[in-house]
User: Fold this.
Amino acid sequence: MTMKFLDIQDTVLLVIDMQPGFYPPGRRDVDRSALNVVFENAAWVVEVARGLSIPVVVAEEDPEKNGPTHHAIVESLPASSKIYPKTSFGVAGDPRIMEALDSLDRSTTVLVGTETDICVCHSALGLQEAGKRVAVVHDCVYSPKAAHDYGLQRMQAAGVELMSAKQLLYDWLPTLGQIREFRKERPQLSYPTHFSL
Assistant:
C-alpha cells in the first residue's frame, strides 16, 4: 500500500519520555553522544512543529524519579502544549493522554522519544490499534545498543512508518515554494549540523 505524505493539518507530534533522568550517570550502556544527538534532533522537530502550528503533546514517565523533559525540547514547545504524566508504557493505556490526542481531531501521530523498544514501540502499536496513522522519527528516538534496532524492527514489521527528521520536514512542506518560504521566515531553523544533506 502506498502511503501519502504527512499532512500538517492532520498531524500531531507526540514527545514520549524525553527525560535525561532516564539515563543517570551510572548507566554504562548509554552512548551519551548518540543520546544528545537524539535530544537535539527532537528539539529541532518540536521547533519546526511550532513554526508550522502543529500541536505538540508531551508525555513524561514517572517525572518524580526521572525528572523533566529535556530543557531544549521544553524551550521549543508551542505555548499551548501540555505535559502529561504517563502511567502506562504505551500512551494508549493512559486515558488522559489519549483524551488530549483525540481532542485535537487529527488522524496522524508522529512520535519522538525514549525508549525505542518499549515506550515508543508500545505507544506506536497502541495508537495504530486505536486507528491512528503512526510515524516514528528514527533519528529522534533512542534506546541503548541493540534495543534501539529491535524496537525499530518490531514497529516496521507492524506497519508503523519510519522516517528521518529531514524526511518529516519535506513531508510537511512538500513543495520548493513552501520550503523556501519557511526558511525565509524562520532562518534559525537550519538543519542541525549532523544531518546528512
Q: What stands out?
A: The helical segments are 32-51, 63-66, 71-76, 95-103, 116-129, 146-157, 165-172, 176-185. The chain has eight helices and six strands. The first strand starts at residue 11 and ends at 16. The mean pLDDT is 91.
